[in-house]
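Readers of this paper often ask what the protein records in our data store actually look like. Such a record has a labelled line for the sequence and another for the backbone structure tokens. Nothing more is needed to write down the fold, since each code stands for a local backbone conformation. The remainder of this section carries one protein's record, kept here as part of the documentation.
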Amino acid sequence: MDESLIPDWPAPANVRALMTLRRRGCSRGAYADFNLADHVGDDPVAVVANRARLRGHLPAEPLWLTQVHGTRCVLADAPREVPLGAASRPGVEADASVSFTPGTVCAVLTADCLPVLFCDVGGTVVAAAHAGWRGLAAGVLESTVAAMRRPPADILAWLGPAIGPAAFEVGDEVRAVFVAHDSGATAAFKSHGEGKWLCDLHELARRRLTALGIHRIASADFCTVTDAERFYSYRRDGATGRMASLVWLDRAV
């Protein structure tokens, strides 16, 4: 797709990935233009049209998850009947999916939360995870890596655009959760007044992945809040759309 961000990471040739941007879609108003979420109040007809346009650039309909800021990672490879542009496997609550099968597309939706894409060096497995601060703290990345069933040293990760460290203000309670798990996580927080901190989601994710033994980590350090032209942002706008981050194994290679 012309209006998409292609991850800059050393993935094998048969691993394909992209993140959609908000431009050149059918949605209007607060959801303009290329909203792919069907749960945010947008016109369902526009969402179906946007998903259909995206589908034209993919080998199959993505597995659209019902994301709940948890840690569950599901296998995307199970056979399913999916109408063009429609939600697949309705009711499947999870915040990550994994695939070992060429042509199966893993996807997560975000608008400030951190999308994380994974593959292995052999190009045999891919995964996508939705990492808001709650899911990140609870262990969604750890659950996703475990589901990939590969040595951490063989896994590559891409951290996509999310709310940046100059825009993400949190309270003492959020900082305490991360520091209790990893005392070095203090490096991801900068004091911003009494009881307030600026939080670096990318840094927290890097620390989690590194602790697992994953060191091949690429990052797109764009802030979704400050770039309204390209990205949706819930923190900035409230009512807004969602971008999709997608990864799959190519059938043709």
